[in-house]
Amino acid sequence: MIETMGLLGKKLGMTQIFAENGECIPVTVVQTSSCVVTAKRTPEKDGYSAIQLGFGDKPIHLVDRASAGFFKKAGVTPKRRLHELRLPKEEVEKLSVGQELKASDVFTDGVPVDVQGISKGRGFQGVMKRHGMSGTKASHGVHEYFRHGGSIGCRLTPGRVFKGKHMPGHMGNVKKTVQNLELISIVEEDNCVLIRGSIPGANNSDVLVRQSQKLKTYRGKGSGEEQVRSKNPLKASKAAGSR
């Protein structure tokens, strides 16, 4: 069971920043403003401990009466999206209903995060784009089979197509999670976070940014102290081959 704190946000797009050492870092900008606690779940009442987050304002005329009463009781404006986060009981007790959470309250610079979103929808696609198949050779005698997937099964045995067979179909528009991304920095005046690399979803789509479930510190490729290279070319070649 994942029990890490996080925030709902909106993916604004990608840009780049420069580190102090001159490195050009591609980052995704996620806006986490107007993220409030709308409800709390306790083991005594609900059987588990969690908080419910609301994100994005919703016009009052688009809210039904039951939802309007729920938001009024919580003391917050109507929210467009609600999401529950399982947390330990002691963490839930520190928060209160109606409290607005900022990125600086949950994250710090350089920590690893997991980002969840809905991937871009690609519609109905063939096997070459969907599964990376090579297709058929365009030699003499081949007619209208260049992008086909080929045979999909046997004859009498097993007499069916195995489940999970790579075939054409709907591509994208599914829930995806990218783990262990580095949170480069927090822009407090705009309540945005800058995350290294790309994350699922199109621009202006909702995402969930949580503290990493697996890592406590970010271990990026190439980070750390550089090893002292040996002046002996034979030893240097052996060290390179062992990597």
Report on the structure:
The longest helix has 10 residues, at about 65-75. The chain has about 240 residues and is α+β, with helices and mostly antiparallel strands. The strands form three sheets. It has a six-stranded antiparallel barrel with strand order 1-2-11-10-7-12. The protein has a four-stranded antiparallel beta sheet with strand order 5-4-3-6. It has a two-stranded antiparallel ribbon with strand order 8-9. Helices cover about 15% and strands about 35% of the residues. The protein is built from five helices and twelve strands. It has one domain (about 5-220): Translation factors (Elongation Factor Tu (Ef-tu), domain 3, Beta Barrel). The chain has helices at about 65-75, 90-95, 105, 125-130, 235-240; strands at about 5-20, 25-30, 35-40, 50-55, 80-85, 100, 110-120, 125, 170, 175-185, 190-195, 205-210.
